[in-house]
User: What shape does this take?
Amino acid sequence: MSQVNRIEGGLIDRSKTLSFTFNGKAMQGHPGDTLASALLANGQTLVGRSFKYHRPRGIFTSGSEEPNALVQLRTGAHQEPNTRATVAELFDGLNATSQNHRGSLEFDMMAMTDFVSPFLSAGFYYKTFMWPKAFWEKFYEPVIRSSAGLGRLSMQEDPDIYDKGFLHCDLLVIGAGPAGLSAALAAGRSGARVILADEDFAPGGRLNAETLEVDGMAGADWATQAIDELSAMDNVRVMTRSTVYGAYDHGIYGVLERCTDHLASSNGKPRQILWRVYSKRAVLAAGATERPIAFGNNDRPGVMLAGAVRDYANRYGVTPGQQVAVFTNNDDGWRTAADLAAKGVQVSAIIDSRDAPAVCDVPGARHVRNAAVVDTVGRKGLKSVTLTDGQVIPVDCLAVSGGWNPNVHLTCHQRGRPTWDDDLSAFVPGGELPVGMAVAGAANGAMTLGAALQSGRDVANAQVKDLGFTASRKAAPKAEDEPRECAAFWHVKESKKRAWLDQQNDVTVKDVKLSHTEGYRSVELLKRYTTLGMATDQGKTANIPALAIMAECTGKTIPETGTTIFRPPYTPVPLGALGGRARGKDFRPYRLTPSHKWAEENGASFVTVGNWMRAEWYTRPGEKGWRDSVDREAKNTRESVGICDVTTLGKIDVKGKDAGEFLNKVYSNTFSTLAVGKVRYGLMLREDGICYDDGTTARMGENHYVMTTTTANAVLVFRRMEFARQCLWPDLDVHLISTTDGWAQFAVAGPNSRNLLRKVVDEEHDISNEAFPFMGCGEITVCGGMPARLFRISFSGELAFEIAVPARYGNSMMGVLNEAGKEFNVAPYGTEALGVMRIEKGHATANELNGQTTAHNIGLGKMVSQKKECIGNVLSQREELIRDDDIRLMGFHPVDRNEKLIAGSHFITKGEDAIMDNDQGWMTSVAFSPNLGHSVGLGFIKRGHERKGEIVRAVSPVHGKEIEVEIVSAHMIDPEGERLRA
Amino acid sequence: MEQQLWGCVRMRYSAFRVLREGLTGNKGWKAAWREPDPKPEYDIVIIGAGGHGLATAYYLAKEFGMRNIAVVEKGWLGSGNIGRNTTIIRSNYMLPGNEHFYEFSMKLWENLEQDTNYNSMVSQRSILNLFHTDGQRDAFVRRGNAMFLAGADAELADEAQLRRELPFLNFDNARFPIKGGLYQRRGGTARHDAVAWGYARGADSRGVDILQNCEVTGIDIEDGKVRGVQTARGPIRARKVAMCVAGSSGRVAAMAGMRLPIESHVLQAFVSEGLKPVLPGVITFGAGHFYVSQSDKGGLVFGGDIDGYNTYAQRGNLPVVEDVSEGGMAIMPMIGRARLLRSWGGVMDMSMDGSPFIDKTGIDGLYFNGGWCYGGFKATPASGYCYAHLLAKDEPHPVATEMRLDRFKRGHLIDEKGQGNQPNLH
Amino acid sequence: MIINHPLLGPRDAAEFIYLGDACLIDRPDWQAEDAAEQFYEYGYLRDNPAGEHQELWYHEQGDRSWLVVTRDTLSHKITKVELARDVAVARGRG
Assistant: This one.
């Protein structure tokens, strides 16, 4: 196929030819083409199907506002749905297919919906599909769903990578059209740090689309020269292919840079970069978007915006048709006719809605005054247009201009509302703009070239002056102000046929009228009822005309009728880019324990605990499943000695002469009375009196405590203690530092733990039961002088110690301990065995301290002192929190010892129905106890402390299981605590 | 086809009507509701024509026979969070004060379209909560069993089942590996705007006046008794005034001199461009603060955490936009080439324990409904029904007895997440 | 958002953790006659204003300062940032 519509000129590089395919058809284009311009060059007018009626559609615009020309780009895992052909840069080997049709693009079986469209008016689905009741999910909805949607995902993982970055500047200039370039030049010359960002690959904006001159040279050449000047400035960063998609608080902007989308392959480089730009000031120079006029069958392939037709001719050297007519309500439309005619394209007629003389001379074109297009012919490509007076003009392209709307979107991202400008018949920025933003050029209603250039310079100068820079005295670039008279004209009332407003979502003038009739009159209701402006283009070309028609219906003015809210992003942003590198295993950081390497070398499996990776068990040869390993580790610890890395527990050094008093306030029990060299269990409440965290705190010296927290709460507890220190009791002399990462800590547990440690701890330290009793602590040395801390505390319920060494020695220490323990048959144990032993012993952890339980519930009500000031003690005494009949933490044994308990099962008193009103509590944690030889559980049950020995039902309907269990003490092993004092 | 009901014309919607109107140029459709002028006095004035307020009016008229009611609204009807949410319906709650209520709501959802004669597209396509650790599994088993005990449905799925049903989830390269999930098959989505419209139309046809652009500027209270409200369209007297304003609760309650156990926060929500069907139901990835479903139009509708600071601005900031998208990419990396189309923010009435209030206030005749956090949508039918019950009978509906304003004073917390009295953590 | 830290200068709000109304500094006297009532109000009731709001932010990814930020909840405009410790002392704590 040849480039039948390629004409002379343009900014494309004709010395190179690029091959691409559309629906498998081979086509050719040139560097500088977009997919849309290349498709037009190749005579491909039909490029897609609309959403609802599957109407044949062509290219409508030449920019990011495109509603129709959406294609599926690339193949395999790189397949990318809903790409606007108008902004997709052509590259060699590009592969595009059309979307949203069954059968071929030319013969879409779903197009039958168009023939029953009278029954599919706006909101029809709210009025039917309700009978029979069960049919919605089973029949109607699946049919609707399968025909809805546009492009397809590949269902494979996105193979590209995406980066994120941060940029800072004095002034962000958004848009590199005439106003933006003029603004960036002025600001750059002042010495301010400037970022100039533009969504296009070629800066210049409309300058590239027009034949206008700046400073006596072609506009596009001037733009190139301006970019050259800016690029040479050290204080200016020019970003092309970079869309400023959102304006956020305090001068922060989101920018998407497309790095490799114009290449056949990313070659391992990031496909896109999501920048967060921190600006002190911004100039919005986003230009304007042309709007169409609604008339019968105005959605046919070949009906285009006039500015886009001119863009294709001037910038890309392509004519969208061989025989073109222009339909306009303003002077600007005339320039399309003039530019095309100048390039030798046949312009048949200029249909002007105004009864006004010709704006300029267009050779060969008829000027039809005070007229409008009422209908068109040509289902898959325009053949002719019919005017209000009945005359039929054969054309294959109709260029329509209904005037231009300033691109106010970013001014409204913080919910500012634009104001109506009667002169322009358009909304312009108004009210409150985002902090630091000023608007220049067409985006601010300066619709002509000379005015835009001047406005860019002036606005930028004001902005940099405000920041303390000396504005450059250089005058703004000079250009003529082209004619721009415009007479509001929204739709052709004489049209009997459907007239489209939102082309992608198939919303017509009739739908807006129906919406009004049915009471959906607020703009937001209109939008929601008809789906107007909800398509991928967000109604950039549709919303204002629709608003005008609603205003007509209500008899109000357009500004009285309102405007919808502009929400970010300005144009759609790939989720891959927003996700960046935080995916797969890198979704969140990992933290490794000091002995991770040793554990890896010794058969450990790892489990995620918060951000940590902890050893869950160590598999030994011959062990068939995890239970074999866990049972062995738990049993071995109780019978001899085991070692577990417990570094992940939070460690906070509390120092200062008021350290004890401070701890009295953050713990529910007292710490100021703790003797130096002793450890105490501490319970922490939230201010609402609910259990927050627990752990042991050791007094290492008069003014020095070492606190431990649970793994999960390490960060939160520290934050809360800083709050208490800085905000509640700033008078206390106390300082906090987190040392979780500073010390590697190991539990050495079991009857042989002292014997083992004796071999490691330097001789001068006496760790006998007498010298170092249960709940003792001290600073010691190990392995011949290495500083360490020793705590005689026990989570397992055995004789046990925790030993801490500087973190960098952690991995070696793990090796040393295991080597020294060989003669005692020492075995490392993981989190699973740790869990087994703490359940056997009745120690509460996260499953029990889940933010819903009181000290009362876990049997520690007496630990909440009412004799001193501490966080949570007042509210902990509220009536419902200290009820006698409330739940208590208890142990549970299966009556049939072969049964396996289920965590999460609920307790029901025997003889009662399993319904919520009879719910007695739930099982929080279960384990197989190798020491007791059966399954054991912990759980909360109402009045548990009075019900020891009772048999209750533990029901788990989600498993379809029910087990009879006996209520026992939570301390299922060594209830008197003799072992840990041994 | 047209019923004369209390002076208002109601057109019955049906397939037949759609056909008939289609054949006659769609010229016979009538307004779905009137645009009346305010009367000087009503029995009950409901402040807020969001989902809950409209549902309250609907059930007051339909179930409790009260018709001299106005719903006053500062914007357009349905302009509150009913028009800006992620459309999820579910009753997968755990605690006694909540689960009966939400299951009652689910049962109302299941009959909503037939009840209101408006297709709100209630789609019970299932909701799945993924879990990633043994501890999370235990908590979800507890929850699933509680749902069963309350008469709801729940299904525990293991990893193998999820691999079969949702092969596109990230099973093999995940920071937080998927260990299973808890399904509620009866959960799903509904067309949020249509819910408001269905209730509005149903209430209007029974004589309720829906007064749009009628912002309340003051609440008239004399001798500890409410007398009416001041509005942008003049004063309106009322025997009872019912606040139902979600994110604006603090502002409206302040007019009555009340301080509430509520903070206003923004929750952002997101929708992608339209895509051919990829997701069967609602999927929730708790470890990554990401939940998603696909609308009937094809957009992926998703959300995550609240921004986390007090705000009345209906917009959010970038860190949460990126955080939510990271969650999405982590759990279903096949969405990388789909594009975010639109994001918006709704102001949430975040309560101190994450659970709501439907209660009288200390002022005679003044009632309060709020504290729905980011879960108000699914509650819409039950909230309306129970509020109507309270307003009509002056006693709480049996499934809403715990939703009292004084519960914090008593220490009766309904804290599903166990986060305590910090609203931005719920 | 950007918070202008009194010691460290402008920092992205994402470095901070938000707690809530700065009235949380005004913790009641535990020995007061009506301590239960006061703690209930302290723990649960909020002004929740639409407008200027003094609130607590913690610079967790920074110097661990608690700050009192005065910010408008309608516009997000920040007009004042203080060290919470200074505010606490000024309000008579310690």
